[in-house]
Amino acid sequence: MNKTFQEMIDDASKLNPAVAAVGFHLCEPESFTAVFQWFRTFEAAKRYLIDVLPVIAANPHDEPELDAEVNACRARVEPIIAPLADAAAFTPDVLDALEEALIDQRVSWVGSLDDLCTSSNPWCETFREEFRQDDDEPDGRPVAASERADFLTHVREYAH
After folding, report:
1. What are phi and psi of 109, to 5 degrees?
2. What's residue 6's pLDDT?
3. Which end of the chain, N or C, is more open, meaning fewer C-beta atoms within 10 Å of its C-beta?
4. Would you state the pLDDT for residue 134?
5. Are 50 and 71 in contact (CB under 8 A)?
6. Taking Cα atoms as reference points, which of 5, 89, 15 lies closest to residue 47?
7. Which residues are within 8 A (CB) of 73 and not within 5 positions of it... i.e. 6 or more apart?
8. Banded pLDDT at 12 (limits 50, 70, 90)
9. Residue 63 reports pLDDT greater than 80
10. Cα–Cα–Cα angle for 112, 38, 61, nearest 5°?
11. DSSP code at position 75
12. What is the rounded distance in angstroms from the CA atom of residue 57 to the CA atom of residue 133?
C-alpha cells in the first residue's frame, strides 16, 4: 500500500519509539524547531528521508507548486541515503552532507531507542543530560532501568 505524504509524516511522528526499529532527530536550526521521527524499519526511515524530507526542506508550507525545488532536493538527498545499510552508516560526514543537501533541515542523530539510551555518541550524551536537567548534577550517562519509563515519556513528548 502506498501511503500519502501526510500519512508518512503522521506515522513517523506518532510511532512509539519503544516499538520502532530506528528513529532520527530532525531540527530546523533557523526556527529552533526539533522533533524525533520513528520508523518500524530502516528502509521506511530511508524512504522518509528520500521522499518526505525534501518536500519539507524545499517547501515548509506544503505548497505543492514547488515540484522543481522538491525534485532538486530529492536529487541531492537520494545518492547520500540510498546506499546506506543501517543506522550506524550515518557518520558525522553523512549527516553533514545530508544537512547540505536539505539546506534548512538537520538530521542530528539516527539510531534506535536503545542507542539513544546507551550510546557514547556525544549527541546522545547531550540529550540524556538535557533529560536530567533538573537533577543536582545532570550528566549524559546511560539511562538506567529505573529511568527508562521517564526517558521514554521525555522522548515521546519531545518537540521544540
Report:
1. -155, 145
2. 75
3. N
4. 84
5. no
6. 5
7. 54, 55, 57, 58, 101, 102, 103
8. confident
9. no
10. 140
11. H
12. 31
Long-range CB contacts (within 8 A, 24+) of 152-158 = 152/17, 152/18, 152/113, 155/17, 155/36, 155/113, 155/116, 156/16, 156/17, 158/34, 158/35, 158/36
Give mean pLDDT, residues 100-126.
Answer: 93
Neighbouring C-beta atoms of residue 109, cutoff 10 Å: 23
53 pLDDT higher than 90: no
pTM: 0.85
Contacts of 99 (CB under 8 A, 6+ apart): 105, 106, 107
Contacts of 42 by beta carbon, 8 Å cutoff, 6+ apart: 21, 22, 86, 87
Q: Mean pLDDT across the stretch 76-98?
A: 95
**Locus of grid cell 525534485:** 71
Q: State how far the Cα of 62 lies from the Cα of 56, in Å rounded to an integer.
A: 7
Distance in angstroms (rounded) separating the CA atoms of residues 73 and 9: 18
